[in-house]
Amino acid sequence: MKRKKTAGDIAFDIFNYTFFAVFTLLCFLPFYYLFINTISDNDKVTRGLVLWYPIGIHFQNYLEVLKLRGLGNAVLVTLGRTVIGTALTIIGTSFLGYALTKQELWHRKLWYRFIVVTMYFNAGIIPWFINMKNLHLTNNFLAYIIPGIVSAYSLILFKTYVESIPTSLEESAELDGAGYLVRYAKIVMPLCKPILATLIVFSAVGHWNSFMDTVFLMTDSKLYTLQYILYQYLNEANSLADTLKNMSELGIHVDASRLLTPTAVKMTVSMVVVIPVLCVYPFFQKYFVGGIMIGAVKG
Amino acid sequence: MDKTVKRKAFYKQSGFRLFLMILPLLALVFVFSYMPLYGWIYALFDYKPGRPLFDCEFVGLYNFTRMFSDIYYFEDLVRVMKNTLGMSLIGMATSPLPMLFAVFLAEIKCMPFRKTAQTLTTIPNFISWVLVYSIAYAMFSVNDGFVNRLLMELGITDEGINFLASADHIWFKMWLWSTWKGLGWSAIVYIAAIAGIDQEQYEAAEVDGASRFQKMWYVTIPGLLPTFFVLLILSVGNMINNGMDQYFVFQNPMNKEHIEVLDLYVYNQGMVGINYSYSTAVSILKSLVSITLFLVSNLFSRFVREESVF
C-alpha cells in the first residue's frame, strides 16, 4: 500500500535533492578545481583561464614539484610516520584493549580509568613541549610515532568491539594451553577485522594529516612533513618564488607553459597531499557506520 | 574458582602476568599524558628558557594574579574568551544540523544518489586544516581565486574581493569552514542511529495514517534525540577547547584579533612570545575550568537522562 505523493512531498523532494546535490558539489568542486589547475598549461592558469576544464593537459608539474628542495624527503618522512606509526598504534592499542577485557587482569578497572581519563585533561602546550624536550624527542623522528602508540579513543572502540564477540572460541583455545599472545594474535585479531579497518583509517589519516607536532617539535628541515611544507609554501610566497627562480636558473626551462609557478607549486603539493586520502578512503567508508555505531554506545 | 588458584601468590597468577605484558604500554601513557603535569611548576616561576628552572625567580601565584590585575593581560584575556565562547556558541547553536542532515538524507530514496552524497560529503573531514586552508586559498584568494574569477567573469565585480585577509564576519567564516569540513562526517553517527530505529514504529505510524513529515517528526527525530543530547552535553564540556589547528592556519595580522581562541592564545604567548610561565598559568586555569565544565555537564546528563557520558 503506497500513499499518493502530495504536493508537499514533491516540493520537499525537489528541495531535498537540490540541497544534497549542491552541498555534495561544494564538497567535491574544490578538489576538482585544484586538479584541473595542476594539469593545465601553467601560463594559462596564471592568466586565470582555467575555471571549469583543463587546458593543454600535461603532468610535468607533478614531476617538477618532487625536485623542489626537501619535498622528496618530506614525502619519505610522511610515508614513514604513517606506515610505522599506524602499525605501532594498531598493535599497541589493540593489545592493551584486549588485555583490558580480561576480568583477571590485575587492577583492571584502575588501569582502564588511568587511560580513559587522559582524554579529558591536558597539561597544556608548554608543559607538554618541555616534557618532549626533556625526553629528547625534539628534532627526533621518534616523536612522530611513539606518543601515539596508545590512543585512548581507539582503545575504547576496540575494547567495546572485543567485548561484543563470543568468548567461547577463546576459551577452547585456552583449554588447549594457548597463552594470551597466541589467543590475541590467532583468535581475537582475525575476528576484529571491521573495527581494525576503521581504526587503521583513523590512525593513518591522523598521521598523514598531522602537522602541529612538526610546528612544535621540529626545527630540522630533514624532519619536515608534507603538510608542514605545504603550510610553509602557502605562507611564504616570496621564499617559494626565490626557490623557483634558483631552480629555473639551474635547469633549462624554455617552455613557459611547463614552468613551475608559485600557484602551480601550491596546488600540486596540495594534490600530492590529498590524492592518497581520496584513493584509500572509499574502500574503507563502508566500515565507518558500523564502527561509529560501536563508539556511539559508549564514549 | 578452585582454591589452588586463590592461594597462589598474586604475582604468579595469569592476571598479573598479563599486567606485566601491558606494563610498557601503561608506562607510555604515563610518560606522555601524566608526566607533562610536572611542567605546571613552571607557572610558579619567572622562567627564562635556557636557564635551569631553579635558577629562575620564584614568583608564587603572580602569573595567575596578573591575568586579572594587569590591564594589558586582562584585556587580552577578555578578548580571547569572547572569541572562544563566541565561536563555540555558534557551533552549539547549529548543532542540530548534522541530525537534520541525516534525517533528510534518509528521505532520499534513490540509493546511488544517496551513497554518492554520503561518500563525497564525508571526504572533507579526512583532509587536514592546512589543506582546507590551501583550498580556501585556491577558491578565495584576491586575484587568482576561483570565486573572484567567477565574479569578475560574470561582471559582478571589477576587482577581487579579499575574503581571506579581512576580519569581517570572521567567526561566521570559521563556522562555515568547519561546517564544510565536518557536517557530512558528524551526520554519520545519526545515520547509524537511524539504521537502528525499529522499523515497526514506521509501520505503525503508517497504519495510523501519518504523513512523511509526521513520521520524520514523531518517529525519526525522537529516536535521534538521545544521541543528540549526549553530543550536546559533550560540546558544553568542550566549550573552551576549540582546538587550534583551524585558527592557527587561518590566522593573519588582519584577523588575528578576532580569531585568537584560548588554545591559540596559549600557543602564541608561550611558543611565539617565549612567555613560558604565563602561558602555562593560562593553560592550568583552562584545564581546571574545562574539567569542571565537563563534570558539571556529566552530572547534568546523569540527572536528566540517568545516564552518564563518562
Biggest interface and which pair forms it? A-B, 90 and 91 residues
Say which CATH homologous superfamily of the largest domain in chain B is assigned: MetI-like
Relevant CATH superfamily of chain A: MetI-like
Overall CATH class of the largest domain in chain B: Mainly Alpha
Largest sheet of chain B: 2 strands, antiparallel
* Overall radius of gyration of chain A: 25 Å
What's the number of structural domains of chain B? Answer: 2
Please identify the structural class of chain B as seen in this structure: mainly alpha
Strand content of chain A: under 5%
Dominant shape of chain B: globular
The CATH architecture of the largest domain in chain B: Orthogonal Bundle
Task: Give a quick rundown of the structure.
With 299 residues, chain A is an all-alpha fold.
Description:
The complex is a heterodimer of chains A (299) and B (310). Chain A is built from 15 helices and no strands. Chain A is an all-alpha fold and 299 residues long. Chain A has one domain (60-297): MetI-like fold (Orthogonal Bundle). Chain A starts with 6 loop residues before the first helix and ends with a helix. Chain B has two domains: 3-37, no CATH class; 66-305, MetI-like fold. Helix content of chain B is 68%, strand content 1%. A two-stranded antiparallel ribbon of chain B has the order 1-2. Chain B is globular, with a radius of gyration of 26 Å. In chain B, 32% of the residues are buried. The mean pLDDT of chain B is 86. At the A-B interface, α1, α4, α5, α6 and α11 of A face α2, α6, α7, α8 and α9 of B.
Secondary structure elements and pairings:
The complex is a heterodimer of chains A (299) and B (310).
Chain A: H1 7-38, H2 42-46, H3 60-65, H4 71-99, H5 108-116, H6 125-134, H7 142-145, H8 152-164, H9 168-175, H10 180-191, H11 193-209, H12 212-217, H13 226-235, H14 237-250, H15 262-297
Helix pairs in contact in A: 1-15, 4-8, 4-10, 4-11, 8-15, 9-10, 11-15, 13-15
Chain B: H1 3-7, H2 14-34, E1 45-46, E2 57-58, H3 62-69, H4 71-93, H5 97-106, H6 111-122, H7 129-140, H8 146-153, H9 170-195, H10 199-207, H11 212-237, H12 245-250, H13 256-259, H14 262-272, H15 276-305
Antiparallel strand pairs in B: 1-2
Helix pairs in contact in B: 3-4, 4-9, 5-9, 6-9, 9-11, 11-15, 14-15
